[in-house]
Amino acid sequence: MASRRRMLLKVIILGDSGVGKTSLMNQYVNRKFSNQYKATIGADFLTKEVQFEDRQFTLQIWDTAGQERFQSLGVAFYRGADCCVLVYDVNVMKSFDNLNNWREEFLIQASPSDPENFPFVVLGNKIDVDSGNSRVVSEKKAKAWCASKGNIPYFETSAKEGFNVEAAFQCIAKNALKNEPEEDIYLPDTIDVVGRQQQRSSGCEC
Amino acid sequence: MSSDSSSTSGDEFTNPNPNPNSTSKPLEDQFASAALTEPDNEPPEIQESPNGVVNGSVSENNHGEIERNERGGAVGSNLEARQSVRWRRTNSEVEVEAPSSPSSSGYAGERGSSSGSGSSGGFEMIGGGIGGDDDEIQEVSNVDSIQDSQASWMPGKRHVDEDDASLSWRKRKKHFFILSNSGKPIYSRYGDEHKLAGFSATLQAIISFVENGGDRVKLVRAGNHQVVFLVKGPIYLVCISCTEEPYESLRGQLELIYGQMLLILTKSVNRCFEKNPKFDMTPLLGGTDVVFSSLIHSFSWNPATFLHAYTCLPLAYATRQAAGAILQDVADSGVLFAILMCKHKVISLVGAQKASLHPDDMLLLANFVMSSESFRTSESFSPICLPRYNPMAFLYAYVHYLDVDTYLMLLTTSSDAFYHLKDCRIRIEMVLLKSNVLSEVQRSMLDGGMHVEDLPTDPLPRSGTLSPHLGQPRDSPESFREPFVGIGGPAGLWHFMYRSIFLDQYVSSEFSPPINSPRKQKRLYRAYQNLYASMHDKGIGPHKTQFRRDENYVLLCWVTQDFELYAAFDPLADKAVAIKTCNRVCQWVKDVENEIFLLGASPFSW
């Protein structure tokens, strides 16, 4: 149906503050990484053009702030999202525990038409830290959680080293596409002049 | 100015028409009774307050003088308080305010009220640009080039390679955006929509954030820029402009852009968003870039965009009658509207029984047809929606060009009426050819309508028999034309527009020197637009008269129950004479109304 046209996919990135959302995005879009932490205020917006299976599309990436004080922005931000990326830090248990909250919050606020099948992707970030020695969330544990939530695709990434970032976003694009509904034919009404009480035409006004 | 002085005088000039000889009095009376001052005696009534804040739309002109007679009170301080946020002056504007020597630069004497205040020098000073399109980036050295605005305007979207990171994109004077309430771009005047996805998201975030707080963002002022927002359900429209146009004008332009979108798609798009917030509208609008860019271009040359009235091609009464008769004939056979137009001017139009057509719908429909090249090549049948008639549903338009500029539109509710309408068209075309309507149309296109040089001397003979016809040779001895060649009409009259409120129509005089370049024409329209906005300001208006003098013009506006007159004079024009001249213009319009307006059988009930 939706054949050659360029598509625009709205991707929301969620997760606790400091897990590396902005860094992942920077790595993906600009191929850059900085060790300096700068808290995102409200949201950042980036675009990235992607080629996937012969199709050209644009990712409109909404990099949101992790701090709780920005949570009120939710409804405004999440509306019409094509995909939601949940990010946690494999070295911080709390950030993993919170994934559930982020997911539920998103589903409530965005209220997608088919919440069961809404495309999420989970990223366990910062696997490079301390060569993995400070890691507290095992891959197994993360995958188990993802499986329990309807087989959410899971990626272990390092924004710093650029590891798996490209692959993760490829998957994000793929999932967002998969979820694209078959569009109905656009068919608005035609004015029904006779049906109008004023008898705008025909009728017997003479 | 006391309110009773204006209200008593108001009664006298509400209608200059019944008695031609009395028409010159009232406007003069009004100014006299309001005790308005002559320019040289008095400082401008509206001035900058110490903190650099000025009042509303009136004062964004570099006025040397503003005098007006309003219904409700003082022009001064209360306005300053109310609108201080909206109309903060920047330094560069203050500079313009200072009287500049016309000889100091090539264009100083021509600087418009709306184009002289940009912050980034060359880019914004040259508002008019070659294309007459305000937003072109122009080299300063191009200022003197004069080309025909419409002829040199290139249809379609330009600068698609730009995005919000491009310096050139950021310097454009006027941006328009359409986006969905999920932040997906739908249309951008400049640049590629997809590349602007991040920018679009930012706009949505701002709008939605304010909306979340149960509020609405209408206008943000940032330096020289105004950001105007219009929310229409799931559709967001945004204009970012440093053209100094009043907020009301910019919002009106966004309304028209939204209307143009509805004309193509109807309001049923809302249902698509209800079903699926992710809905991407751009495919539905595929190929219509040119329709929007042409509409946006018309904001700078077509006064119908702010007057909310349409204009007719000047034609002999009998000619228009002949056209109307055959249109009426087909309208009786199940056509909802039959419209014959030449470019953006109406030759005749007929609505079936009670159906009425809003001038804005006509503007949008004509723009849609004229900007879409495919209508020119063959007869077409296209679904269209008239947003003011019924925004929810489609009508069907049969469109056929009878010659290069003249086209016939037959609107119907029946999707299978093509062959019937084709037959109607053949009938109409035959009658029009036989009665020479089409050749008259061609002639009128060449001759033009009212030329200020032809303004008859005062007073006119009372009987209509001697009143001048537009068709008569323009070099007739009585004509004032000779002495005024190159400097407009009598009394320094450069141009006028007359809008008949009852008819929903306006007539605009032909442009003649010194308003002869597209840039000057656009600047004059902008000045009129500002004047219109200030006259209709909901907070401090509506007003009856306004007289303002700045380095570019004397502008005079007169609003009654029946008409609105906008006139531009030489900046040195004498006020009393200018007022007198306006009365003569009104009388002249009245004398030739048979030819310049579509009269009678007008189904308009708006």
From TrEMBL, chain A:
It comes from the Eukaryota. One of its GO terms (cellular component) is vacuolar membrane. Keywords: GTP-binding, Lipoprotein, Membrane, Methylation, Nucleotide-binding, Prenylation, Protein transport, Transport. It is a lipid-anchor. Coiled coil: none annotated. The keyword Transmembrane helix does not apply. It is found in: Cell membrane. GO terms for molecular function: GTP binding; GTPase activity. The keyword Secreted does not apply. InterPro entries: P-loop_NTPase, Small_GTP-bd, Small_GTPase. GO terms for biological process: protein transport. Gene3D superfamilies: P-loop containing nucleotide triphosphate hydrolases. Its main location: membrane. Protein transport. Probably involved in vesicular traffic. PANTHER family: RAB FAMILY, RAS-RELATED PROTEIN RAB-7A. Belongs to the small GTPase superfamily. Rab family. This is Ras-related protein Rab7.
